[in-house]
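Subgroup meeting minutes
Present: P.N., E.W., G.H.
Scribe: E.W.

1. P.N. recapped why we're keeping a running log of single-chain structure predictions: easier to compare across weeks, and new members can see raw inputs and outputs side by side.
2. G.H. added today's entry (171 aa).
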Amino acid sequence: MIIEILKIVFRFIILIAVQVLVLNHVEISGYINPFLYVLFILMLPVRIPRGLLLMIAFATGLLVDLFSNTTGMHAAACVLMAFLRPGWLKIIAPRDGYDVEAVPSVKRFGFQWFIIYSSVMVLVHHVFLFYIEVFRFSEFFSTLMRALASSIVTLLLIIITQYLFTKSEER
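Output recorded in log:
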């Protein structure tokens, strides 16, 4: 139990550091902003209590907001993603259900399951974040395209991270 908590804390520190120190300064053609830190919320245990999940998501988003000077936008997007996560996990649950201590990953549930799970969650996060940032519908399609492009790049980074840093014996 303590080892699992330490793994989660280590993952949190690494992902926030990479986001704040590297990815916040990456802007591909002024249009695409990758947000790898959402992987932390995606990889929280499946059976985490909903209240704790929402508090962790809020704290994660707030920390990114503090370093990004975005006044609560990331916190709001993370809380929305965390709010929708249990329902989405229930919809896409494997036939046998989830293990008690299951942590969503490519190597535990397979590539197809993980891409379906993470793509919807990342898309929800990014669409909400970018529309809150713009806060007007006059740029509806350009904001949607920006959210989609950023989601694709973020998903690519998530998949690469999954294959590079997730142990294969989790299954």
